[in-house]
Specification:
The radius of gyration is 14 Å and the shape is globular. The strands form 2 sheets. Strands 2, 4, 5, 6, 9, 10 and 11 form a 7-stranded mixed beta sheet that branches. A hairpin with a 4-residue loop joins strand 5 and strand 6. By secondary structure, the chain is an all-beta fold.
Length: 115
């Protein structure tokens, strides 16, 4: 019923940019927060950026000044603009959408940054 789909991942040289998109569909009536997480090989999943319904935004220290999260609630879509990419940004990026007492997750999109 509810589907969350990410897109925009790929391979890029260090210093380059990518823009990730995540769209939710199927029975979304209200959204409390939308977020991006990532998980690199051998590492724990970590929060990259989060935007709440009231407009508050949180970023991981490692991406501040380089990444920007934005939303379009009318389209149930969240974006992650990633600039000045580094090899350590290489990971699978997951979209998370928080509704009433529940989280929905996408399948992930691979981001690979070469040195």
């Amino acid at each position: 019923h509810v589907q969350v789909v990410e897109s925009g991942g790929g391979l890029v040289q260090a210093g380059g940019s990518l823009r990730l998109s995540c769209a939710a569909s199927g029975s979304i009536f209200s959204i409390n927060a939308m977020a991006w997480y990532r998980q690199a090989p051998g590492k724990q999943r970590e929060l990259v950026a989060r935007i709440i319904s009231g407009g508050g935004i949180n970023y991981a220290d490692s991406v501040k000044g380089r990444f920007t999260i934005s939303k379009d609630y009318a389209k149930n879509t969240v974006y992650l603009q990633m600039n000045s990419l580094k090899p350590e940004d290489t990971a699978v990026y997951y979209c998370n959408i928080a509704v009433l007492s529940h989280d929905y997750w996408g399948q992930g999109t691979q981001v690979t940054v070469s040195s």
